[in-house]
Design brief:
The complex is a heterotrimer of chains A (about 110), B (about 550) and C (about 250).
Chain A: H1 2-11, H2 25-46, H3 53-73, H4 81-108
Helix pairs in contact in A: 2-3
Chain B: H1 28-32, H2 37-65, H3 76-95, H4 98-112, H5 120-142, H6 156-160, H7 165-192, H8 205-236, H9 250-284, H10 291-304, H11 320-348, H12 357-380, H13 382-388, H14 392-422, H15 428-455, H16 469-499, H17 539-553
Helix pairs in contact in B: 2-3, 2-4, 2-5, 2-16, 3-5, 4-7, 4-8, 4-9, 4-14, 5-7, 7-8, 8-9, 8-10, 9-11, 9-12, 9-14, 10-11, 11-12, 12-14, 12-15, 14-15, 15-16
Chain C: H1 5-13, H2 30-65, H3 67-74, H4 79-104, H5 108-138, H6 150-153, H7 159-163, H8 171-175, H9 177-210, H10 220-245
Helix pairs in contact in C: 2-9, 2-10, 3-9, 4-5, 4-10, 5-9, 9-10
The chains are: A mainly alpha (about 110), B mainly alpha (about 550), C mainly alpha (about 250).
């Protein structure tokens, strides 16, 4: 019985705490610089005529910037799987809201069958 | 019904434990400032019962008006206000918080072996938000009501009605945050507060289903909040997002609204399904058949729930291509729901079934929810939906799910855990009678509405053609019986607080951790941190425990 | 928090170390508490994503429907102020991240300085935002408040519009710029509201940090506030291109 218990203890929830990882200021500074550069890039790109690619590039850079913030400033890179899953769940539902709503709006223009 | 598993302690010697969470502290302030999840659950129980009574009374008035074809009891616009307030009160102030905020609050920490929810103060805050929302709804009622229907459909709610849309919207906004905080608290608690050995697949299914519902609360409710904020802005400053004359799209409101309000249906029903899993297992003395499948079906319902909302809008002018997609996705939800129903049935198979009150309610749930769920599949089929929507068929459908399903489950849960919450039993015979009366009354009330709907009687009208009267009389008569069925528990449960038999720790011989401690429990729940060394619903473990106790006592 | 004597007794027996004062009674360990509160913060941020999600959806739909109006509307925004504000906000995110680092390494002076810097940069952001808002109010570009389409039906009369060489919009389309400006105000306003709440909490934290809190190993509050602050930053990272940049070319 007792060895059974010990075994379960390992699998139990008490053991999967996040190890506290301290991110060094050098990393923060690098990310900060990267964010500023990306901001410059996205502003610069908006002055170049690229047609449909203008919004794509702008959103793409925004996604990269947001990812950097999430991963490093918000420590998700060093966090537990649970935190990563939480971020993923938020993103998934957000895209479900936008995507499924747009599925109606986009196909309305197609008219009736 | 001769056999029973109820085992009460010897009434001549049994006493309610002197120290428990109720007697721990006295005075009104000790309740209003408490951070004990059990006390907050009781605060919720009282306030929810209050709002249920109001919502029920409004339902009674609606049925009374529909007794005759003319709108003679009240004017049509009063009728509109009455059914709107009935919907708002019942959905946002009763159904959404019902099982999670009362039973869930009380039981989740007990079931997972924790001392409290992870965020006790947020839990109390959530009750105060609920009360603030509730008071605003009461204020709305007194100051003239609102007549948009609980769906606040634009442009009706933004441009055409002149009633208290703003206060009701604010009430729902606030009550929504109460629900967000409850859900957030549950998710954190279930992830982080489990006792040693309490792995995910040893959790009672009640915890799983509340977990799934909590995900929906956290992810869905904010979208309702923003939709209501936009309605309020549209009404006050005329921003134009929902105003066709300014280029806005009224349907966008419905997309946002149903993005929450369809999952909200699962917020309401999932915790009820959790109750049924516990009750069915306890009264068939068997582990729930296909535990893993039932657990995952809760999560599947939660996930699918986000992809079906447009089926509420099939006749509103959405594109026929997206109708096809949403219609197909709607069918998907039937799969995990059916998994649950089948697994409960298999749990009953060769079980030692006894017919105590909670079990009677659970049987009621299974039958009525199956009908409600299957008619949901009819309505998810876009062609059938166009014929049946906005008729009494849809009214009957969601009342079968919400009242026949959810309310039955809620009552099953209240009766099942009442001895744990209060330490006392209610009179068994009269409670069994109440369960049967509720079932009969319910069917009398709502089954005729299916027929009315297929005959074409539209919902939300105070008057109707005379040929529908017979079925409406049936329905109103049934509502009276149903009313008695709900009144009885309120009476005998209150009575039992003082005069009920002492229940002891485990009157049903159930296996959950909550049954292994005194009733009512201590403020900190457990004397020592429990260690879970067996699976959920392990009745053999319970037998061994009892033998051990007898041996050590001898 | 009243501890039942039975529990206290039990904990003594099982040899738990004495709890630090900031550990709530219902948590077994400090780790568990820190972990739970951080997870709760993440879940709260999920609700925020969905809250803003509704507005992002509306923006996408209406931008597709009324593209010319949204282009003309966005020409009214100043890229200079927008870029500057993005820089300010990113800097405040950096100082906040550094604040968390100082808290982790228990350096009070640095933490207080970082919090003050974040506070000031946050105020700076709001200051710049109010300059932009003032301009909109002046030009009657606030929906529902004497909204005027003059800049769009007659772009020559408007400095910003004529700089871009905007062609006059038909009155019907020009009126839809009101939708653009509503979404602009709703999204940046909701964002600013979050900033204001954050700045208030920052003020409280500076006060507490000077008293030596957060640098005693109990950094949950700073850490969780950091998550909130970075999240607000992320919202802006998306608002900036959506509102200011992507419609520069008609």
């Amino acid at each position: 019985m007792s060895e059974h218990l010990d075994h379960e203890h390992e699998g139990g929830p008490k053991n999967d705490y996040e190890e506290h990882h301290i991110v060094s200021p050098a990393v923060y500074a690098t990310i900060f610089a990267a964010l500023l550069v990306a901001t410059g890039l996205t502003v610069g790109a908006s002055y170049i005529e690229m047609g449909v690619f203008n919004p794509i590039v702008a959103i793409g850079i925004a996604v990269i910037k947001a990812t950097l913030v999430v991963l490093f400033f918000m420590h998700v890179k060093y966090s537990s799987k649970l935190t990563k899953l939480t971020v993923g769940a938020g993103l998934f539902t957000f895209l479900a809201l936008i995507g499924m709503t747009l599925s109606d709006y986009i196909s309305r223009a197609w008219g009736r069958w | 019904m001769s056999s029973t598993i109820v085992s009460l302690p010897d009434q001549s010697t049994a006493r309610i434990p002197k120290i428990n969470f109720i007697t721990k502290e006295n005075g009104l302030l000790s309740w209003l400032l408490t951070s004990d999840h059990k006390r907050i659950a009781i605060l919720y129980l009282i306030s929810i019962t209050f709002f249920f009574t109001i919502g029920g009374a409004l339902a009674g008035v609606i049925r009374l008006e529909l007794l005759t074809p003319q709108s003679d009891l009240m004017a049509a616009d009063t009728y509109n206000k009455v059914f709107t307030m009935h919907g708002v009160v019942m959905i946002f102030l009763f159904l959404v918080p019902s099982v999670p905020a009362t039973l869930g609050n009380f039981l989740i920490p007990l079931m997972i072996g924790a001392k409290d929810l992870a965020l006790p103060k947020i839990n109390l805050l959530s009750w105060y938000l609920y009360i603030a929302g509730g008071i605003l709804v009461l204020y709305t009622m007194i100051s003239g009501g609102v007549d948009t229907g609980w769906t606040f459909t634009t442009p009706l709610s933004t441009h055409y009605v002149n009633t208290n849309v703003l206060t009701t919207g604010m009430a729902i906004f606030i009550a929504g945050f109460s629900s967000i905080f409850t859900g957030l608290n549950f998710i954190v608690t279930i992830h982080k507060m489990r006792a040693p050995g309490m792995t995910w697949f040893r959790l009672p299914l009640f915890v799983w289903s509340n977990y799934a519902a909590s995900i929906l609360m956290v992810l869905g409710t904010p979208v309702l909040a923003i939709a209501l904020v936009l309605v309020a802005l549209e009404r006050t400053v005329g921003i134009g997002v929902f105003d066709p004359t300014k280029g806005g799209d009224p349907l966008l409101f419905q997309h946002l609204f149903w993005f929450y309000s369809h999952p909200a249906v699962y917020i309401m029903i999932l915790p009820g399904m959790g109750v049924i899993s516990e009750v069915i297992s306890a009264f068939s003395r068997k582990r729930v058949f296909g535990y893993t499948a039932v657990a995952f079906s809760s999560v599947a319902i939660a996930v699918f729930g986000f992809f079906v909302w447009e089926h509420h809008m099939f006749i509103m002018g959405v594109s026929s291509y997206s109708m096809l997609v949403f219609s197909l996705l709607t069918m998907l939800v039937a799969v995990p729901s059916a998994i649950k129903i089948f697994n409960w049935t298999f749990t009953l198979y060769k079980g030692s079934i006894t017919f105590e009150t909670p079990m009677l309610y659970a049987f009621g749930f299974m039958g009525l929810f199956t009908i409600g769920g299957l008619t949901g599949v009819f309505l998810g089929t876009s062609g059938t939906d166009i014929h049946l929507t906005e008729t009494y068929f849809i009214v009957a459908h969601f009342h079968f799910v919400m009242v026949g399903g959810m309310l039955m489950a809620y009552l099953a849960g209240i009766h099942f855990w009442w001895p744990k919450i209060t330490g006392r039993m209610y009179p068994e015979k009269i409670s069994q009678l109440a369960a049967v009366v509720t079932f009969i009354g319910f069917n009398f009330t709502f089954f005729p509405q299916f027929i009315l709907g297929t005959l074409g009687m539209p919902r939300r009208y105070a008057a109707y053609p005379p040929e529908f009267q017979i079925l409406n009389v049936f329905s109103t008569a049934g509502a009276t019986i149903l009313g008695v069925g709900y009144l009885l528990p309120i009476l005998y449960l209150t009575w039992s607080l003082k005069y009920g038999e002492i229940a002891g720790n485990n009157p049903w011989q159930a296996t959950g951790l909550e049954w292994q401690i005194q009733s009512p429990p201590l403020t900190e729940n457990f004397l020592e941190v429990p260690v879970m060394d067996h699976d959920a619903y392990d009745y053999e473990w319970l037998e061994r425990q009892k033998e051990k106790e007898v041996a050590s006592a001898g | 928090m009243p501890d039942s004597p039975a529990i206290a007794h039990d904990e003594l027996e099982t040899g738990h170390p004495a709890h630090p004062s900031y550990q709530r009674h219902h948590f077994a360990t400090m780790d568990q508490q820190a972990d739970a509160t951080s997870f709760a913060m993440w879940l709260f941020l999920l609700t925020e994503i969905m809250f803003f999600g509704g507005m992002f959806t509306a923006y996408l739909i209406y931008r597709n429907w009324y593209y010319p109006a949204f282009v003309a509307g966005s020409h009214q925004l100043s890229i200079f102020w927008g870029t500057l504000n993005t820089g300010v906000l990113i800097s405040s995110s950096f100082t906040m991240a550094m604040g968390v680092w100082y808290a982790e390494t228990r350096r009070k002076q640095g933490l207080v300085l970082c919090l003050i810097a974040t506070f000031v940069l946050g105020l700076g952001f709001l200051g710049i935002k109010s300059i932009e808002y003032a301009e909109k109010i002046e030009k009657h570009h606030v929906p529902g408040l004497h909204y005027s389409v003059k800049s769009f039906v007659d772009p020559a009369s408007d400095k910003a519009a004529s700089e871009y060489g905007d062609k006059p919009l038909a009155l019907d389309m020009a009126r839809h710029t009101e939708l653009y400006f509503f979404l602009y105000f709703a999204m940046t306003g909701m964002h600013a509201l979050h900033m204001i709440i954050g700045i208030c909490i920052l003020g409280y934290m500076i006060f507490r940090a000077r008293a030596g809190d957060y640098t005693d190993g109990h950094i949950s509050f700073v850490e969780n506030f950091g998550l909130y602050w970075h999240f607000v930053d992320i919202i802006w990272i998306f608002l900036f291109p959506l509102l200011y940049l992507i419609s520069r070319h008609a």
